[in-house]
Every structure is written in structure tokens, then in C-alpha cells.
Amino acid sequence: MGDFPVVETGENVTRQVLADHPDLMVVAFRFDAEGAEGALHDHPHVQSTFVESGRFRFFLGEEVREVGPGDSFVIPSGLRHGCLCLEPGKLVDCFTPRRDDFL
């Protein structure tokens, strides 16, 4: 296990890989301002999201869900998703298999 860099992914949004293995990756996303966005995207990985802090509006396919500290959910492979930060905070995501594009 090594130290992974903090990477800017958008305005007021950063990510940092916390741990990785070919079968699983844990990543922290920090949103530093209300209105910061996690752009809509999709990927073949199954993703779980845990809200460590803050409040977010998630767009999961046709569903819109507001989440806060302690909430968690799973995003299936291939589902178009993204989020809008309502209150600054941190998301902890797990991906299986790992996101090699994050390394």
C-alpha cells in the first residue's frame, strides 16, 4: 500500500485513492463547496457510495435521491450517474473491479 496523490476532478472536487487491489478499490471524493458537481458518467464497475459528511443530490439513471451522513447505496454497472453537492463533505466510494483509470 502506498500514498496516493490527491487529484482535482472538477471545480472544488478532489479524489484520492485510499486502497486498491485488482478486485476492489476504495476512493475518497471531497466536495469543498455547495454547487460542486460530480459530472454525469457511467462505467462498467459496480460502485458503492458511503456519505461520510455533507449532503448530496444524486442522479441515478432516472432516479433523484438526496443523501446525507451515514447514507450508503450501490450503483450498478453501466448506470449513468452523478451528483450535486448541497453541503460540503466527503464521499467514500468502492469500485469492483478497481478503477485502473484512477491509478
Give structural notes.
- The chain is mainly beta and about 100 residues long.
- The protein has one domain: Sandwich (Jelly Rolls).
- Strands 1, 2, 3, 4, 5, 6, 7 and 8 form an eight-stranded antiparallel beta sheet that branches.
- It is globular, with a radius of gyration of 13 Å.
Name its key features:
eight-stranded antiparallel β-sheet, single chain, Cupin domain-containing protein, RmlC_Cupin_sf, 103 residues, 65% strand, Cupin_2, Jelly Rolls, mainly beta
What would the CATH topology be? Jelly Rolls
What is the structural class? mainly beta
Q: Write the CATH architecture name.
A: Sandwich
* Molecular shape: globular
Oligomer: single chain
CATH superfamily: Jelly Rolls
The succession of helices and strands, N to C, reads EEEEEEEE
Mean pLDDT: 97
- Total strand count, please? 8
State the end-to-end CA separation: 13 Å
Number of helices: 0
Protein name: Cupin domain-containing protein
InterPro entries: Bacilysin_H2HPP_isomerase (IPR052535), Cupin_2 (IPR013096), KdgF (IPR025499), RmlC-like_jellyroll (IPR014710), RmlC_Cupin_sf (IPR011051)
Pfam family, one: Cupin_2
Domain Cupin type-2: 34-87
